[in-house]
Amino acid sequence: MKNPTRGFIQHQRNSAGFTLIELLVVMAILAVLAAVIMIAINPAKRQKQARDATRKSDIGQIANALNSYFSANSLFPAPGGPASSALTALRASGDLKIIPLDPVGNEYQYLISGTGNNSEVALYAVLEDATSGIGNWVWCWHSASVSVGEITEGGCIP
Predict the structure, then answer these.
(1) Of 5, 6, 19, 61, whose CB has the highest number of CB atoms within 10 Å?
(2) SS3 assignment for 48-103
(3) pLDDT per residue over 9-41, tens digit each?
(4) DSSP character for 106?
(5) Are 42 and 63 in contact (CB under 8 A)?
(6) Where along the chain do its domains lie?
(7) CA 158, CA 155: separation in Å to the nearest integer?
């Protein structure tokens, strides 16, 4: 009887490593886990929330400086529009040491009542990740009611 393996090179299976299929399956599982973690963490949303927290803090700091300026001068700084001109007046008076800047470079908005006596103002920053709903929401401070909160953009008036 002939030996069928005679004359052929016998191959031994090396079982010390992983097969290509096993490696691909592990890589696919890791990719799915990474995707699930990224969706759960949502870094873009967290960055928007962090920038909004900075805006809210800045509005509070500016509001305190405005109240101090009003106590000393019996009126708020003028004119209305971008807050930079009013903030410059607050810095010149010493009520604001450093002019806060919006995290993405937008201007904080500073509005004066139409009566012309600079006795009522509103200050707001547009939020990126509003918690109140869809649309343009702002973090608004009113001098008359000394209130601060999240409202629609058109509702922040002195």
Answers:
(1) 61
(2) HHHHHHHHHHHHHHHHHHHHHHHHHHCCCCCCCEECHHHHHHHHHHCCCCCCCCCC
(3) 666 666 678 899 999 999 999 999 999 888 888
(4) P
(5) no
(6) 44-155
(7) 9
